[in-house]
Each structure stands twice: as C-alpha cells, then as structure tokens.
Specification:
heterodimer, A: about 180 residues, alpha+beta, Nuclear Transport Factor 2, Chain: A, four-stranded antiparallel beta sheet, 11 strands, B: about 700 residues, alpha/beta, Alpha-Beta Plaits, Rossmann fold, 31 helices, about 60% helix, about 10% strand, PUA-like_sf (chain A), ribosome biogenesis (chain A), RNA binding (chain A)
C-alpha cells in the first residue's frame, strides 16, 4: 500500500474528471472527513484517513482491500475504473442517463445501452463524456461513456448505441473473482 | 383354551398396573417370562414344528417339575387377578379331576387356567403315550399344522396389540373367535375318533393339549419378545444391504417414541431404556440419513420428542430471509420495489427492523436489480443476532474475526452507518472474493479486509472496541442448509472445532480493549448446537480471561445450558442464547456476549474469584489445567521463539487464583475436586492436548 505516484494520480484523476467534472475537488478534499487515494496490489483505494492509519498495521501480503476500490491499473499500466467506484461517481455525477425497466437487465448483463432503452438523459452531455447509468427508480446501476451528445441522442434511431458500457452492478454476480487480486493480476 | 388364558392374564396384569402401582417384586409377566426362559434353557434347542413324537417321550420328569412350578406361579397370577373373572370354559371330567388334584396340591384357582394346568391328567397320559403316538402320529401332524396356523393368527393379534395397546375389547373379540374355531375343530376330531377307547381319547386330547402348551409357550415368548422381533431381526436385514423399509422404520420410530414418552408404564418387561434408545438411534439414523453419533448427540441434548421435532425441522428449508441494507435504502421502499417485481414478502418479525421473509418470488431473489445495486443481502435470520447483540456504536473500531461472506460485516457497517472502522478478517483465501464483493456491493467503505489466521490477530491489530467472533464450527445447527453435516461429523470433529474456537475466543478477547469508553464487548457465536462448541467454550474463557457474560439484549431464544451431562458450567452462562430450527424457525445458533473487565490475561478480580471458589467446591474446575496448557501451546505455535519461552514459564506457573482457592477451600474439598475431575468423563480433545504436549517436548 502506498500513495499514488504523479503519473498514476494523473491518470486516475483524468478518469474521474470525465464523470464528476469540477466536483473532483470535493471528492479529493471532503469537508466531513479527509480521504486519501492509495495504491495496493495495482488497485486504487479511496480511504478515509483514520481508517488508512489503522490499516498500516496490516501486512502487505495479508491486506486484501480497504475503503472503496475505485479501479485498477492494467498490465499495461492504464487505469480503469471498476464498479466499486459507482457510489462515489453517482454521488458527484455530472452526466446521467436513466434506463427503461425493460432494458435494465440488458445493461446489467454488460451490454451497451441502446437508444430504445434510454428513458431519460441529463442536459449537456457531451460526446465521449462519462455518464452514470440509473434505473428509472433512481438507483445507480453502472457507468458508461456517452457515444453522442444529448442533442444527437434525440435524433438517433432506436437500435443505435447511446452509451458504451464500462461497468455495471451485474459484475458483483458474474465477475465476483475480479474483486480480489487473482492469478490474472 | 390357551389363547384365552393368555389374554385374560395379560389384561389382568395390565389392569393391575393401571389400578395400583406395581410392586417392585416379580410381576406376573416377568415371572412368566422367567419361566419360559427356564423351560427353554432346559430343553434347548427350541422345538421345531415336527417335534411331537420324540418330544412326548423325552420330557418326562422335567416337564412335571415345570408343571408344578407353573402351578405355584399361577397362584401368584391369580392373586393379581383376584380370581374375579370366570371364563366358563367347557368343564370336562378330567379337567375337574385335574383341578381337584391341583387344588389339593397348591390351593385354589379358578378354572380358566385349567386347560394348561393339568399335571395329574398329564401323568396318566404319559403312561399311555407310547400307544397314542404310534396310532395318532398323522393326526398329531395335522394338529401341529393347525396349531401353527393358530399361532400365526395369534402372533398377528399380538402385533396388533403391540400397535394399539389399549384396544383390549377388540382383541378380546378376536381371541374369542379363535377360541370358537378351536372348539369346533376339537369337536370334529372327537367325532372322527369315535372308535377309540375313552382312555385313548383322553390320551389324544392330552397330546393335543401338550402340543398346544408348547405353542402357547412360544406365543408367550413371541409376546414378550415382540420388541425383540422388531429390534434384533431388522438390523440383520440392514446389514445385508437390502433396501430398508422406510415406512416400517417410521412406524417403529413412532412406536418407540411413544414408549419412551411414558417409559414406566409402556415398556416391555425385560427391556431396558437403553435397548429402546439404541433401536431408536439406529432407526432415526437410517430414516433421516444421519450417522448414529449425531443422532445420539441430539438425544443426549434434547428430549426424545424435541429430537424428533429437530430432525423434522432439519428436513425443511428455513424461510429465505433478506436484510435491508440501510446504508442505501429503507425497508419499506425496498419492500415496495420487490413487491412490484412479484416478490411475496413480510417483515421477519418484531425483533428486527431490517429483515424480510421471502415466501415466494417470480424472479430469482438473488439476481434482481435491487440485489445487484446492493439494497439488500440474502442472509439467514439467525446471523442477524450476533450483530444485534454486539450493537456497535458509531465511530467505534470493530473486529469481525471470521467475516466471509460479509453478511454480518455489512450489517455491522450499516449499524455504524459507515463511521468508525471495521477489520474484516477472513482466513480462507477463496472466501475473500465473496467478502470483498459483498462489502463493495453494499457500499461498506469503512472496512479493512485482511487475511490472517484469527489466532494471530492480537499481535497485528492491537486493541479494538468490540469484537465479533462468529467462529468456524461443525455446523450442526444448519443441517437443513448443508446436509453433508448429517454424516460428515464425528466427536473428533466437534472436539477439533471446540479447540479452535477456544483459541479464537482467547484471541478475540485479547484483541478487545477493556478500557474502551463505549465498548469492551466480545460476541461469540456459532451455527452449531453442540454444547462443546458453545457453553463449554464460553465457560473455558471465563476461567482463562478476565471477562464476564452479560445479557445479549436479544429478547428471545433459549437460555444457555448451565450444566450438561455431568459438566457444570458457570451459572452466568445462562445469559447466552440458543436458537433452534424447530423452535424459532431459524438456523440452530448460539450467541453469547462477553464484557471484558480488564486487559489482564488472568481473571483476578474479587467477585469472580468468589464465584470461582464456589464453583471449585462444586467440582466445576475440573480439567482446567490441561485446558490451559492446550491453548497456551496453540498460542505458542503462532508466537515467536521468545514468546514461546514466556508462554512456557506461564504454563508452569499455576494461576494465582487457583492456588488461593485451593488453599482456602482446604484439603478435604480439594480431594473432592480431584475425584470429581477423575470421575468426569475426559473431554474428547484431551488426546489432542497430549499430542500437543508431546510435540512440544520434541521441539
């Protein structure tokens, strides 16, 4: 477990920025309790500082996870957000999409979001911006990258993709093994 | 006729037992059984069906002896009966004569036993037996076959009788029918024997009578050994790998349970309770598919009826329960959205504000969008309890020593509203994924997941405010969930679990900070109903660390056992709570809340000392010393070389409170304690302790 290096931090913040925009400041400097980013076994954790302090007593090999896991660095050292970041992103999200109940499950099985499944979309979503996906009951179910801006989405035909899938809560079921460093990592 | 005679004596004895308490002396039944036995012993092997001819000659003196014996015994039977009932059987001349002779010899008896109490006529018959046998051999044979038929009928009746026990009137009717049949047969015989001399006829009758007597004796034997028939033949069939007849076994189980409920009155004479219990154990093991150890364990722990309820409950699945994740959603909202998906549910009960019972569902309850979004978790109702008992406060540091798959950990996080921090430890690597996934899914952000052996935690973590130890156990409470427990567990497994649990609980208490302003509590729970894994462990820790048992704040559940099969536990163990499948409709569970009094490693505070001394006098201290050695050994394994030396020193030193207690109590009671220790059955894990010691010595 160690603090992130400059280059790593840059990557992480860049990813976060696409989702939360200027809210990133409140993410990094929370008024209620200070939080920090830590890297452990190629995963980035967002941890409250007092928890972090106690976690230092745990050995490196024995420490499995702590706080919120935001994402992980791939073998090629690119940063990728994982589903653990959803709560944080949803709390500060700038761009949102709501999914109709009929295509909720489709998205939660890892498919891209089609125009036909799009229930609502927040204003001013730019193309390639990160969006948090909600069900119509306002429950966050994943996040994605918008393929088109809000205006363009309105003109799309029903079978076109409006958001490219990044992560969804279905991973808790179908990819449970990916939450702990395994043989792949 | 003989059958009637049996009938009446039996019913008479039954009446006698019901009207007045039986005298401890020989009852008519036992007397008869003894008599039958003695007769059998004299003329072993028991007669085959074609015994007639040689038998007739062979039994001469001994037979008459037994006759006289019987005469005297019949008196005693008469006494019980009070000579009240008059059967009014056919009074033939010989019979009267016989009766007269009999009366002269032994005193008065009614004519209902006349048929089988005729020593004088018999003697006369024996003089002529040679002729008769040669003449009437064939008839004898036919008689025999008839008799055997009769016998079968009778045994059937007996079976019925055993089954119904108390429908005397019905049985009587059957018997009377039998009798009338017998009579008619006799008549036809006599009509065919017109040419014979009267004396020959007598002899013939005498022969028939004798044969009948034998059958009678056999029938009696059948009657007395009816349990035997059921008891000791069937296991042989089982051994032959034939498919066991489940319905028959079920019937027998019910029958034995019925007998055991009122053993004094319903028992079969000559059968000990143990015989019944052994049979019951074997039957239950076959019927429910357990190993006999577990059945025996249940029978030792519960009454017979409760054991049956437990076994039945173990066949049923417990209702599916879910826990609302209050970090994300309120229970009412969750219930609404699930009902909209076609889930039929109800609150789990007054005792929980977050639990819901799911009756049925149109969608898989473990794969709804709400589930994946972390609004609830599938969690058995019983595993709510230790978290509620621990009652963590906001901002505290909490340790969950065996956390996977995270149901309890996330509940703790929800109770703390994600403040403070939780150490979620899990020893098994493969279970870490589910733990981490659940923590993330339910949005628990204050947790540190680590992968230690629980016994090593005190050195890693230092002091925390509260500790939850849901110890790994034999799983005897969750048989409905995991039926491999039925056959997979033995006494050694339970002993092993208990040993590990003691080590873990010591570690848990060492992790806890007694000086914590808000906490200082440890909750110990298992999903086992074995006393060795529960009360015994808690009792052990009371002797090992400065802790006391406090009320867990759970408003239901049974009290913990304060004594079990000769072992006495600390009286405060009753504050612990037990939960059973058949009582509370949740998994078998044990919860005990402990308050740590000081951070010292031996209990020295005065009030506990007094309690201990009292307990010492009552022999409750037994086995403390080897227990101490055991866990010290275990800890030493984990510790470094230096620590080992210190531990060894500690082990040699007898704890101060023991010394003091022994001194005060005095030599006399100390002896008593010793004897108590030696007389107590050794704990099953003592072997392990010895082994540990040995291996220690090698090191």
């Amino acid at each position: 477990m160690r603090p992130l290096e400059e280059s790593e931090l840059e990557q992480v913040l860049a990813k976060l920025f696409t989702f939360v925009g200027k809210n990133i400041e409140t993410v990094l400097q929370r008024s209620d309790a200070p939080h920090s980013l830590r890297l452990h076994k190629k995963r980035v954790y967002y941890v409250r500082d007092d928890v972090l302090k106690r976690a230092t007593s745990v050995g490196r090999d024995e420490l499995v996870a702590l706080g919120t896991c935001l994402g992980k660095f791939t073998h090629s050292d690119k940063f990728r957000l994982t589903i653990g970041a959803l709560d944080l992103l949803a709390a500060h999200a700038k761009h949102k999409m709501w999914v109709k109940p009929t295509s909720e499950m489709g998205f939660m099985y890892g498919n891209h979001l089609l125009k036909s499944g799009l229930g609502r979309i927040s204003e001013n979503v730019a193309a390639n911006a990160g969006v948090v996906i909600y069900s119509m009951a306002d429950v966050p179910i994943g996040f994605a990258v918008a393929s088109k801006s809000t205006q363009d989405c309105r003109k799309l035909d029903p079978s076109a993709i409006v958001a490219y899938h990044l992560a969804d809560v279905g991973e808790y079921l179908r990819a449970e093994d990916s939450f702990v460093q395994g043989k792949k990592d | 006729m003989p059958p009637r005679a049996i009938k009446t004596t039996r019913s008479a004895s039954n009446d006698g037992s019901s009207k007045s308490p039986r005298s401890p002396a020989i009852t008519p039944r036992t007397a008869r059984a003894n008599r039958v036995k003695s007769r059998e012993a004299r003329k072993a092997p028991p007669p085959p069906k074609e015994e007639s001819e040689s038998e007739g000659e062979g039994e001469s003196e001994s037979e008459s002896e037994s006759e006289s014996e019987r005469g005297s015994e019949s008196e005693s039977e008469e006494d019980v009966e009070g000579g009240s009932d008059d059967e009014g059987s056919e009074s033939e001349s010989e019979e009267e004569e016989a009766q007269a002779v009999k009366a002269r010899r032994t005193g008065g008896f009614t004519d209902e036993n006349a048929k089988w109490l005729k020593p004088s006529s018999k003697k006369r018959a024996e003089e002529e037996s040679d002729d008769d046998d040669s003449e009437n051999g064939t008839e004898d044979d036919s008689d025999d076959s008839e008799q055997s038929e009769d016998d079968e009928d009778r045994s059937e009746d007996d079976d019925e009788f055993a089954g119904l026990d108390g429908n005397d009137s019905e049985d009587d009717g059957d018997m009377e029918q039998d009798d009338s049949e017998d009579d008619s047969e006799d008549d036809s015989e006599s009509s065919s024997e017109d040419e014979l001399l009267p004396i020959e006829r007598k002899a013939l009758k005498e022969d028939a009578r004798r044969v009948k007597e034998k059958e009678d004796a056999r029938a009696e034997q059948l009657e007395t050994n009816i349990q035997d028939d059921d008891t000791y033949h069937l296991p042989d069939e089982d051994d032959d790998d034939s498919v066991p007849d489940l319905s028959a076994i079920q019937m027998r189980i019910q029958e034995i349970v019925r007998v055991l409920k009122d053993f004094k009155n319903r028992r079969e004479t000559g059968k000990s309770r143990n015989d019944y219990v052994e049979r019951l154990v074997a039957d239950l093991a076959t019927y429910y598919g357990y190993n006999s150890f577990l059945i025996r364990y249940f029978l030792d722990t519960f009454s017979v009826e409760e054991t049956m309820e437990l076994l039945e409950a173990n066949e049923q699945q417990r209702p599916v329960t879910i826990r609302t994740n209050t970090l994300k959603v309120r229970r009412r909202e969750l219930a609404e959205s699930l009902i909209n998906r076609g889930v039929n549910l109800d609150p789990v009960g007054k005792w929980s504000k977050v639990g819901l019972i799911v009756y049925d569902s149109r969608v898989p309850i473990g794969a709804t969008p709400e589930y994946m979004a972390g609004q609830y978790i599938l969690q058995s109702a019983s595993s709510f309890l230790p978290c509620m008992a621990l009652a963590p406060q906001e901002g505290e540091r909490v340790l969950d020593m065996a956390a996977a798959p995270g149901g309890k950990t996330t509940y703790l996080a929800a109770l703390m509203r994600n403040t403070g921090m939780i150490f979620a430890n899990e020893y098994q690597k493969k279970r870490l994924t589910s733990l981490v996934a659940n923590l993330q899914r339910l949005g628990c952000t204050n947790a540190i997941v680590c992968n230690y052996d629980g016994r090593a935690l005190p050195k890693v973590i230092g002091h925390v405010d509260r500790v939850l130890l849901d110890a790994p156990c034999s799983g005897t409470g969750v048989i409905a969930k995991d039926s491999s427990v039925k056959t997979g567990k033995s006494a050694e497994d339970i002993a092993k679990c208990a040993h590990l649990q003691k080590e873990l609980l010591v570690a848990a208490i060492d992790c806890c900070d007694a000086n914590s302003k808000t906490g200082g509590y440890v909750v110990y729970s298992t999903c086992s109903i074995a006393v060795e894994e529960n009360e015994a462990v808690v009792d052990y820790i009371l002797r090992k660390r400065d802790v006391k048992i406090v009320s867990s704040g759970l408003e239901f559940g049974r009290k913990g056992f304060t004594s079990y099969r000769g072992k006495n536990f600390h009286p405060s163990v009753e504050h612990a709570r037990r939960f059973y499948p058949h009582v509370h409709n949740m998994d078998g569970f044990f919860v005990c809340k402990l308050k740590k009094l000081s951070n010292r490693t031996v209990p020295t505070s005065n009030d506990t000392f007094d309690e201990k001394r009292a307990a010492l006098e009552s022999g409750y201290f037994g086995g403390a010393h080897d227990g101490d050695a055991r866990v010290d050994d275990a800890n030493a394994d984990v510790a470094s070389e230096k620590d080992q030396a210190i531990e060894a020193k500690k082990r040699k030193r007898v704890p101060g409170y023991v010394k003091a207690a022994l001194a005060e109590v005095g030599a006399g009671s100390a002896k008593k304690t010793k004897t108590a220790v030696s007389s107590r059955s050794l704990p099953p894990d003592k072997k392990n302790a010895k082994k540990d010691k040995k291996s220690k010595g090698k090191k």
